[in-house]
Automatic annotation (TrEMBL):
Localization in the cell: Cell envelope
MF-aspect GO terms: carbohydrate binding
Gene Ontology CC: outer membrane-bounded periplasmic space
UniProt keyword list: Signal
Signal peptide: none
Periplasmic binding protein domain ranges (all copies): 31-291
Cited SUPFAM superfamilies: Periplasmic binding protein-like I
Listed name of the protein: Sugar ABC transporter substrate-binding protein
Organism: Streptomyces sp. R35
Predominant place of localization: other
InterPro entries noted in UniProt: Bact_Solute-Bind_Prot2, Peripla_BP_I, SBP_2_dom
Lineage, top ranks: Bacteria, Bacillati, Actinomycetota, Actinomycetes, Kitasatosporales
Length: 356
């Protein structure tokens, strides 16, 4: 899916617009989109282009997406949000770098009469709605899969727990869900949070874990996402592991799917980005155009943030991705093709599991 910035101006040197929003709130609308970083490939490859295409589809190509990526910089994202408020976009979708620090900006948007929808991460402040995946369920799926992979006598086996960034509220939910499945079923030998979700930081933490616990004593790794999983696997291989123990992941990134095919990574959590992104676009357009019945139908769940209760929400379901269901998930949904997954290096492994 090609990523194009056609029709978008510049916000803080990335994507955006300085044109004023239409006062009619018809199809000629501007949807502000603030995404947090580029380290995870999903944002540029899926979220932005899907939301852009869906907004255009819903507005007969009259609506535009004003896009900015914060590149993991919370202060930068706050400036980008302020710019969108100054430019009077009609509605803002924000995937917060720091859910707490974004609250003041959300309040400014609210004061300016601009609805704010929290996307993927639950931003604090007076948001109008929230759309994401069931994040505790993500952790539960990961934890359950790891326990199953460890097999008999799992309760005596040591694992390393590699969580996400403390600034991301989703990370806390993943951790809570995973802990509920892992507690009393395995031995959590070491636990680490990963600053900025950065794989470099994750690899350093995994190296510490190997030194403290012992390479041969690590029976599995709970990894909150695929970037961390890749770093953990790299550290294990560098340390000389003869066979990589079960490692979890999340996001179904292409290299993670390939690791699963090869057997280096046990599983990932597949979240249908098309489903989430399309629903977010529908939610944003319905909100700004005043179609309350449609908006309410899209937000039948309720969630609480530290600052607001009973926020209208949509929680999209998730799937455990293993060797057994690659065809039925990422390939069927058009996320990847067999050709993209089964490059020369992985061809034999693909054949062995029936991917052709």
């Amino acid at each position: 899916m090609a990523v194009t910035l056609a029709g978008c101006g510049v916000v803080d040197g990335i994507g955006g617009s300085s044109t004023k929003a239409s006062p009619t709130k018809g199809d000629d609308i501007q949807v502000g989109l603030l995404l947090p970083e580029r380290e995870n490939t999903r944002y540029e490859k899926f979220d932005y282009p899907i939301i852009k295409a869906q907004v255009e589809k819903l507005t007969s190509n009259k609506g535009k997406v004003v896009y900015a990526n914060a590149e993991q910089d919370a202060a930068k994202q706050n400036r980008q949000l302020q710019q969108m408020v100054d430019d009077k976009v009609d509605v803002i979708l924000v995937d917060a770098v720091d859910s707490k620090s974004i609250a003041a900006g959300v309040q400014k948007a609210k004061d300016a009469g601009i609805p704010v929808i929290a996307y993927d991460r639950l931003a604090q402040g007076p948001i109008d709605a929230y759309i994401s995946f069931d994040n505790e369920l993500v952790g539960e799926v990961q934890g359950k899969a790891l326990v199953e992979a460890l097999g008999e006598n799992a309760a005596s086996k040591k694992i390393i727990m590699m969580n996400g960034a403390t600034t991301d509220p989703n990370a806390a939910q993943f951790k809570a869900g995973a802990t509920s499945e892992l507690k009393d079923k395995v031995v959590i030998a070491k636990t680490y949070d990963t600053k900025d979700w950065n794989p470099v930081n994750a690899k350093a933490n995994m190296e510490k874990a190997i030194a403290a616990v012992g390479l041969n004593n690590i029976a599995g790794v709970y990894s909150a996402n695929d970037g961390i999983a890749g770093a953990a696997i790299d550290a294990l291989k560098t340390a000389g592991v003869s066979k990589v123990p079960p490692v979890t992941g999340q996001d179904a990134e292409l290299d993670a799917v390939q690791r699963i095919v090869k057997g280096d990574q046990y599983m990932s959590v597949y979240k249908s980005y098309p489903e989430e992104a399309n629903a977010a676009a529908e939610m944003a357009v319905a909100k700004v155009q005043g179609r309350s019945i449609e908006f309410d139908a899209l937000t039948r769940d309720k969630v609480d943030s530290p600052t607001n209760k009973d926020v209208p929400a949509q929680l999209v379901p998730v799937v455990a991705l293993t060797k057994a269901n690659i065809q039925d998930t990422v390939i069927t949904d058009g996320i990847y093709t067999v050709k993209q997954i089964c490059t020369a290096v992985y061809k034999a492994s693909c054949t062995a599991i029936g991917l052709k």
